[in-house]
Amino acid sequence: MVELGPLLERLLAGDFLCAVSDDTAFRRLQDEATRERLDAYLRPLNRRLASNDEGSVYFLAWRQLDEGARDQLSRQLAETVGSLLPMLEWLQLVQEALGRDGPVSPGDVLKPADFSSRCEDNQGLRERLERLATDPFFGSQSEQLDAQIKQVFKRLRERGYLRQPHADRHYFIATAKIDYLIELVRFIRDEEQLPVDDQAPETQERLL
Questions:
Q1: Alpha-carbon distance 60 to 7, whole Å?
Q2: CA distance 197 to 164
Q3: What is the pLDDT of residues 78-122, one digit of tens each?
Q4: Phi-psi region for residue 84, left (φ > 0), alpha (ψ -120 to 50) or beta?
């Protein structure tokens, strides 16, 4: 298991691994024998390797929901739910600002400069971006458009939704964690266990 150590560390740290975030790790996880070895190691930790329905992203899930797992899962869920609405609004804003037919997909290239030019010429988009950037999830405290966009992209990169291949080049690539997010929203919508539909029905309908 020594050779799988770095991969295990990333998974245990909560990373979502896909072809964009780490192509080498993702290809290793597509190997059934490797997945079985990882699951055997993770079993005593009450964890298991999981993926979304499309198999485009891998992450860790709990094997059994004992009391400790439930407490941690509740904290994680609360944090995730707190990010759902601003993330849905961001996905919708991308779709409208860039004239896309559908939501962002893994591998899509996004450039902050494109957002800046579109929002400068559209007061409605500019106001929506300002509200989004100052949301606690993104946490911008600037009144400048470029600084707000920079903070939004920085936060999305920190959360694993975007990858910046080169620090000195201002473009980002969407990761498959976005697939996981959309799948989670669909689950919540279908199960009707959380009030996300009541708070943002129009955004969800446009996206999903």
A1: 12
A2: 32
A3: 677 778 889 989 999 999 888 888 888 999 999 999 989 998 889
A4: alpha
